């Protein structure tokens, strides 16, 4: 019997956050991950989904921008919530309209700092170091049709010291992501009932 809440994960890369999310919900009584979608056939996130027996789908830019195929896949799986986990494309209006306040994303900085188009992954951590920030962290936010502008629902921070490099900053931020994103997703999903 389908569970009450059904999540689709969108990922573009290695999928470490996606794996933490799949692990978190693997035996959840009310929430299940029913699909992982990617815009890259080489994304390691697809392999991670296979470990959990979660169906995957890959789409092209044309599929995503010029057709409703992605929405049709989500509807076929009766998806109730969409989770972005390292997904780099802007979400089009047809998806934000179909899932109002039901799409969530994580960003590796304390928004509004270091957000927007082109700010992802190591680019964010390099900018944090370059600007001499004394703290950074994660922002979990709802998604609208603009990069990193949806309503913030959670932030966590970590210090940045003079000895930190973009790589050590990334490690600290990853720890925050793994510690908080699955739990915040669960609270968000269950709170939307």
Automatic annotation (TrEMBL):
* Binding-site positions, N(1)-(5-phospho-beta-D-ribosyl)glycinamide: 15-17
The reaction(s) annotated as catalysed by this protein in its Swiss-Prot or TrEMBL entry are: N(1)-(5-phospho-beta-D-ribosyl)glycinamide + (6R)-10-formyltetrahydrofolate = N(2)-formyl-N(1)-(5-phospho-beta-D-ribosyl)glycinamide + (6S)-5,6,7,8-tetrahydrofolate + H(+)
What Gene3D superfamilies would the database entry show? Formyl transferase, N-terminal domain (3.40.50.170)
Q: Which UniProt keywords apply?
A: Purine biosynthesis, Transferase
Residues holding (6R)-10-formyltetrahydrofolate: 65, 105
- What region holds the Formyl transferase N-terminal domain? 6-185
Q: Which residues does the annotation list for site: Raises pKa of active site His?
A: 148
Tell me the pathway.
Answer: Purine metabolism; IMP biosynthesis via de novo pathway; N(2)-formyl-N(1)-(5-phospho-D-ribosyl)glycinamide from N(1)-(5-phospho-D-ribosyl)glycinamide (10-formyl THF route): step 1/1
Q: What is its EC number?
A: 2.1.2.2
Active-site residues per Swiss-Prot or TrEMBL entry = 107
GO annotation (BP), single: 'de novo' IMP biosynthetic process
MF terms in GO = phosphoribosylglycinamide formyltransferase activity
Any one GO cellular component localisation term in the record? cytosol
Pfam families under this entry? Answer: Formyl_trans_N
The UniProt entry's sequence similarity note says: Belongs to the GART family.
The record ties this protein, via NCBIfam families, to: PurN
> What does it do?
Catalyzes the transfer of a formyl group from 10-formyltetrahydrofolate to 5-phospho-ribosyl-glycinamide (GAR), producing 5-phospho-ribosyl-N-formylglycinamide (FGAR) and tetrahydrofolate.
| Name of this chain's protein | Phosphoribosylglycinamide formyltransferase
Report the source organism: Chryseolinea serpens
Gene name as annotated? purN
């Amino acid at each position: 019997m389908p569970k009450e809440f059904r999540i689709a994960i969108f990922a573009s890369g290695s999928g470490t956050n996606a794996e933490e999310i799949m692990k978190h919900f693997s035996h959840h009584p009310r929430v299940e991950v029913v699909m992982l979608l990617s815009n890259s056939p080489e994304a390691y996130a697809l392999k991670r989904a296979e470990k959990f027996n979660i169906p995957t789908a890959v789409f092209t830019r044309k599929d995503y921008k010029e057709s409703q195929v992605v929405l049709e896949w989500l509807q076929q799986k009766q998806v109730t919530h969409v989770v972005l986990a390292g997904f780099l494309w802007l979400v089009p209006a047809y998806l934000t309209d179909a899932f109002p306040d039901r799409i969530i994303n994580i960003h590796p900085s304390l928004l509004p700092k270091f957000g927007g188009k082109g700010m992802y992954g190591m680019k964010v951590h390099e900018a944090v170091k370059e600007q001499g920030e004394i703290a950074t962290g994660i922002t979990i936010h709802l998604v609208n049709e603009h990069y990193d502008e949806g309503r913030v629902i959670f932030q966590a921070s970590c210090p940045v010291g003079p000895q930190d490099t973009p790589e050590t900053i990334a490690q600290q931020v990853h720890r925050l992501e793994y510690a908080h994103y699955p739990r915040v997703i669960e609270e968000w999903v269950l709170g939307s009932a």
